[in-house]
Structure formats: C-alpha cells, structure tokens
Amino acid sequence: MALNNTYDARLVQQETAVGAGLQILLLALIGTAIGMGPAGWVTGLVFAIATWAVLSRALHRAGSRTFGPANRVTLGRATLVGGVTALVADSFQDSPPVSLFVGLTAVALILDGVDGKVARRTGTSTPLGARFDMEVDAFLILVLSVYVSMVMGPWVLLIGVMRYVFVAAARVWPWLTAPLPPSTARKTVAALQGVLLLVAASAFLPHVVNFGVVALALGLLVWSFGRDVLWLHRTHRATQAAPAAAGRRARRELVTS
C-alpha cells in the first residue's frame, strides 16, 4: 500500500512538471513568433516555476493521489495565463500582437467555464481544485488590469487587486473568511471581469467606450464585494449577539424562578 501511495504521488508530481514544461514550450513558441524580449521571458519563466512549486506543495500537503481531469483543464488554462503574463510584461517595451494577446486570453476565459463542469460530471471536485481555479482566475484579472491600466490609468488596477486586498483584510478580520451563500450574481460579476477587461484591452472600440466598459467592470466588482462584506459583517454581529442574548435570558429565568 505504501508503494502504491508513493507511485500515485509521483504521478501527480509528474503532471505538474509536465505543466511547467508546456509553459516553457508556449513561451518558446511566442518568443519565436514575436521576438519576445528579456522581460517577457523572465516573467514567463518565473510564472512557470512559481506555479509548479506552489501547486506541487499544495498537492503534497493535501495528500492527493490523482491530479484529476478538472485540474488538468485548469493547469492548461494556467499555461495560457502564463503566456498572457509574458506578453503583458513584454508590452512595457513593445506592444504585443493584438490577435495573439486576445486569442490566448479568450481561450483562457472560455476554459474557465469548462473545468468546473468537468469536475462535477466526473465527481472529482475538491477544495484544492476550487482554490486552484480561483487563483488562476484572480491572477488573470490582475494581469489584464495591469495591461489596461497602461492606457487608462492606475485606477484600473483596483479591479485586479481587490480580491487580494480582501484576502489581506481577512487576516486582520477573520470573520471575512466565513463561507458565503451561493450567489449567481457573484459568479456573473466575476466572469464579466475578464470579458470586459479583454474588450478594453483589444482596443477594438473607441477609447471613451472602453473607458465606460472598464468603469462598469469596476462598479460591478465594488458592488459585489461590498454586498458580500456587508453580509459577512451582519452575520458576524448576529453570531456574537446570540450568546449574549442567551445569557440575558438565562439570568432573567433565574431571577423569576
């Protein structure tokens, strides 16, 4: 049994290594096609190594014996995000081809709706898989906001950093880590962020329209986070108030008895 567990663990680690290899291959293809500069290469390689290291450590800590089909889809999406990240880093020197940038980003966004369905249909949903999916989504939004901010200004970065600010705030106020109720509106707003940022990044529309598109994305995100934070705060206050109310009732019953 121990040998089987070791063998399974090695297979899982091999799949993450294959993902890193595919990331490097994609960078090589992009570099050959557009003559990518040092900034793009370094950023892409750092992304590949960091993804491999963090994912391998998380799988080891979770004791995963299989990588799973859904995680393979997410890993493929992470590879595309690495390519987009390299292009954005390279864009500080030379603008990337719009068709390549839009193509990689669009496929990554489309696959965002695939891995969850695969996990549910194959019965392989796991907390680690959901976290992996979420982190890839968040990083892609951050990268897209960096790219769009170079044209529209630093205020666009609020879209990319808002989720990370929320995570940092949860370290100060642990009640922010409480589970939220399912929400179609939250999922819709999250999905729209990448689409709206890609529309603006493609520059197919007039600047004023793109400005409105990004402003809409930010407004929706502020509304979504604000609603969730308000719900969490109210729930936290209600949870704290319940023991106090129970104590007061107990004291009244003692007095009346």
Automatic annotation (TrEMBL):
The keyword Mitochondrion does not apply. Pfam families: CDP-OH_P_transf (PF01066). Keywords: Membrane, Transferase, Transmembrane, Transmembrane helix. The keyword Nucleotidyltransferase does not apply. The chain crosses the membrane at residues 20-53, 211-230. InterPro entries: CDP-OH_P_trans, CDP-OH_PTrfase_TM_dom, CDP_ALCOHOL_P_TRANSF_CS. Belongs to the CDP-alcohol phosphatidyltransferase class-I family. This is CDP-alcohol phosphatidyltransferase family protein.
